[in-house]
Amino acid sequence: MYLKKIIASGFKSFADKITLDLTNGITGVVGPNGSGKSNIVDAVRWVLGEQSVKSLRGDGNMTDVIFSGSKSRKPLNVASVTLIFDNQDKYLPIDYEEVAIKRRVYRDGTNEYFINNEKCRLKDVTDLLLDTGIAKESFNIISQGKVDEIISSKPSERRVIFEEAARVLKYKKRKEEALRKLDKTHDNMNRVNDIIKELETQVEPLKEQKEKALIYGQKSKELEEVEVSLITSEITNINYEYQLSKAKIEELSAELLKSETNHNSSEAKIETFKNTLSVLEDEITNAQNKLLEKTKEVEKLNGQKNILLERKKYSVENSKLQESLVASQEKQLKIKLEINKLKIEADTEREQLKQLENEITKYESEIQTVSEERNNLEKKLRNQLIQKNELENKIDHLKESIENNSFLPVAVKSVLNHPKLRGIRSTIGQVIEVEEKYTTAITTVLGFAANNIIVDNEENAKEAIQYLKQNNLGRATFFPLNIIQSKKIDSSRLKTMEGFIDIASNLVQCDSLYKNIIENQLGNVLVVDNIDHANQINKLIHQSYRIVTLDGSLFHVGGSITGGTIQKSKNIVTEKYELENSLKKFDQKINEIKDIENKMNEIDYNRKSIEDKLYISNRNKINKQELIRQKEQYLKEQEKELEELENQITGTNGILNNNLIEEETAILNQYYQALKEKDELDQNLIRLKNKKMNINDDLEEYELNLKKENSLYNQKNKDLNNLEIEVNRMDVKLDTLLNKLNETYSMTYEKAVTTYKLEMDIEVARNQVSNLKREIKELGNVNLDSIEEYEKVSTRFEFLSSQREDLSKAEDTLLEIIQEMDEVMIQEFSKSFEDINQKFKETFQELFKGGHAELKLTDPDNLLETGIEIVASPPGKSLKSISLLSGGEKTFTAISLLFAILKCREMPFCILDEVEAALDEANVDGFGEYITKLKEKEYQLIITPEQVDDSQYVCIPYVEEDLLLSLPLNHPLTKKKTIKFHDLDGQTMLLYSNIGFWHDLHMQKTPKTKYLLQEERFTFNEIVKASTLPSYTSNLSIKREGKMSDRIILPIDEEEAHVTYYVVMLKENKKKYKELIDKIDQYYDY
């Protein structure tokens, strides 16, 4: 492997992109001071990972390496250097025959590394070059001052060179890394132990809290499932009762209103009766008073009559005849009185008979009315019973149909009814419950999919399909529970759209086991109220989902629409809905039948009461008719007797010659007239009392009816109040249950009723809820976060425990690795040290033409840390310390050591930056001769301003440079024509820091001159232009930058102020380096 090419752009003085093509051999780069030779070395070190700005001759940050601009060029924002290696021998451990390592830095300080144009880390670069001898700190790059550093450094510092040569640097770094890891492991172990101790105090309590929280969570989940389903069931039942009660309240309110009207009418009638009775009471009182007066008058007349008759008894000659006549006349008057009385009584009885006949007619009419009403109710009852029987038959048929799957296709029914097929659950339609208003929509969306069969897994589906094939039963579709995934739509945006009801999957109820399947079929279907809104929503969602309306219109994905009249077809959804609807109708029919039967019982009771009254009235009528007949018969007998008596009186009067005096006749007439009037008053009183009695009977009947009506009214009113109280209670209960759903479970009734279904008796559910609440209460305070906290702490505890074990193993492993690396490093270092020591002795004697040199370990028993002493004695000298060597001897000694290392350790390339600067011409020749011997083995890039005199090399002069003095216009030295170095003694001069060869010359020739160094990021002429100090420049600088009008340039009349630069190369490679020479010429022409 060798360094094939260097490409630099924007790095230090390389403003333009520059490419140096190198070959496998010795390459010399020669140029004047400040031409950028050392920048090439810096570029190589920089790419290899140098992070020290000072090592790159800067003092700011890494952005100092970016070209900072000049008078004619603007600053750049990025610097980039690429090293391209020929890797055909696979020296680098990478599968490329050519390896390009590039580094780039931006003005903001960002660094980037690339290997073959693939971005990487600095660590990737250093790992790739580790122990290859190409590292930034490796001995293959010897820059200015490095040679002296090798000799003057401490033995312990000198050890690094030998470690690199022994290829143990990677082991040392790995050991250092292992030691760092070991320290870090110890620290981690201590921290882990501290944390574990702390966690141990938390794990057990948290475990107990977690177990309690898990029980709480399980109980709470059970409680939620049971209580929510119980609440929804209670809400449904209470709402049903609530609606029935509301209807009953309306019915009772209407009946009470009617009862109030009848009540008012009855009370008015009763008031009328009472008023009539009051009048009758007055009439009866008057009649009794008149009767009393008439009775007194009769008694008085009777006394007068008796006195008169007694007196006539003694005065009349024929007293007996007279007495007989008086008696006959009195009897006549009595009979007339009796006849008159009988007529009055007969009229009264006829009047009462008429009243009875009216009552009978009324009762018969009422009986006919209630009979007709009962007949109508009987007819209605028969119809209701027929409908009830029809519903019973329909329910039985539907239940049987659902149980036997009679509506299903043959294939589906065969699979469901086959007892040996495993994992068969049910059809999709059978596992869902749908509200009545959504039945059409859901049925339309599912279509034949309602008959798809749910199975446990795909193996069950495979067995069922094989069964259908073998028996030629048709086809069926299967939904394995373990495969089918749910499909969901985010409905948050849809809820704001007019007409949107919900996602179809949210409108059905099913067991949680089938949730994925239901959401797979219905989770991406929108339910909308009508076709107009569906059309609007379909446009807004760009026909992305299916939409179904409540009447069954279906919008498909892509825009097609299905609609029209829906033909009734049997499927599980419609059958279940019809069964549920029939059960509700059946319950309603039972209630209606009970109402009819209650009404019929009430009518029967009322008709029996009327019939009883009719019977009594008919019996009274018969009695009354018989009494009238008897009175009429008796009246006829009295009238006949009166006629006979009148004939007798007429005969007696004839005998007595009408001898009755007028007084007697008058008294008798008065007496019997008074007696007649008394009888009439008596009959009138009897009539009035009868009338009062009848009115009292009617009043009692009305009052009894009113009392019954009042009782019924009060009962209905009580029922109404109870119903209203019950409705209010149910209203409060509904609000309480709904609030509990919302506040406790954050759930609406609609969501709860679609998610949960009560599958046990309500009382059992209530007991279970009560027990669960009691068990939850008995748990006491529950830390719900303890589950997560325990998992975190437990996981962390287990993790740290395992980490502690891993750290313990890691410590043992690291100690083993360190021991193994120590053994390897000792072995490799010892072997390499012996080889290098031997080569050092040989190389020293070869370069110095004699003498003695060797390397010694400062601590032979500690090869891992021992320093290395250099012992060197040039020919003819016996020195105890290398510090006594001259400058050239030190350089040659250091070069001997470097070449000894190169002999022991193969290097892809070696860069020497003016290492021979301190050698005299004779030693330079020796240095050149020695390089010649190494040319076949090593590839070296030598940067030097010195001419090499050797027959194998060609030195081509390509430029001459003269040192000049630049002075401000008013400086005292401007009076001289030429300058000597001693003229500058005591002056303060501005000196560019990166001046290389000239810098050393200035220091040597003008030691008394004070120098002010400037930073490299400004061009020298820009610094000088703003300065009042003298400074050095050269003819090449003036050629590049131009002469400044505010400065005077004077030549320096010294031999050292003139230098010639050469391109040094092997003669045989002159043609290969033509391109390099041309580029150097182009650079200096610029």
Describe the structure.
The protein is built from 22 helices and 28 strands. The strands form eight sheets. It has a six-stranded antiparallel β-sheet with strand order 2-1-4-5-6-7. Strands 13-15-16-17-18 form a five-stranded mixed β-sheet, with helices on both faces. It has a four-stranded parallel β-sheet with strand order 3-22-21-8, covered by helices on one side. Strand 21 (910-913), helix 18 (921-934) and strand 22 form a beta-alpha-beta unit. Helix 6 (319-404) runs antiparallel to helix 12 (572-655). Residues 938-950 and 1014-1018 have low confidence and may be disordered.
Give short descriptive properties of this protein.
alpha+beta; 5-stranded mixed beta sheet; 1086 residues; 6-stranded antiparallel beta sheet
Provide a concise account of the structure shown.
The protein is an alpha+beta fold.
What is the fold's blueprint, element by element?
Blueprint: E1 2-9, E2 18-21, E3 26-29, H1 37-47, E4 78-86, E5 98-106, E6 111-115, E7 118-120, H2 122-129, E8 141-142, H3 146-152, H4 155-165, H5 169-315, H6 319-404, H7 410-417, E9 424-427, E10 433-434, H8 439-446, E11 453-455, H9 458-470, E12 478-480, E13 500-503, E14 508-509, H10 515-522, E15 525-528, H11 531-540, E16 546-549, E17 554-555, E18 561-562, H12 572-655, H13 662-745, H14 749-755, H15 762-778, H16 786-848, E19 852-857, E20 868-873, H17 887-904, E21 910-913, H18 921-934, E22 940-943, E23 953-968, E24 988-992, H19 997-1005, E25 1010-1014, H20 1020-1025, E26 1031-1034, H21 1035-1041, E27 1047-1051, E28 1058-1066, H22 1074-1085
Parallel strand pairs: 3-22, 8-21, 11-12, 15-16, 21-22, 24-25
Antiparallel strand pairs: 1-2, 1-4, 4-5, 5-6, 6-7, 9-11, 10-14, 13-15, 16-17, 17-18, 19-20, 23-26, 23-27, 23-28
Helix pairs in contact: 3-17, 5-6, 5-13, 5-15, 5-16, 6-12, 6-13, 16-17
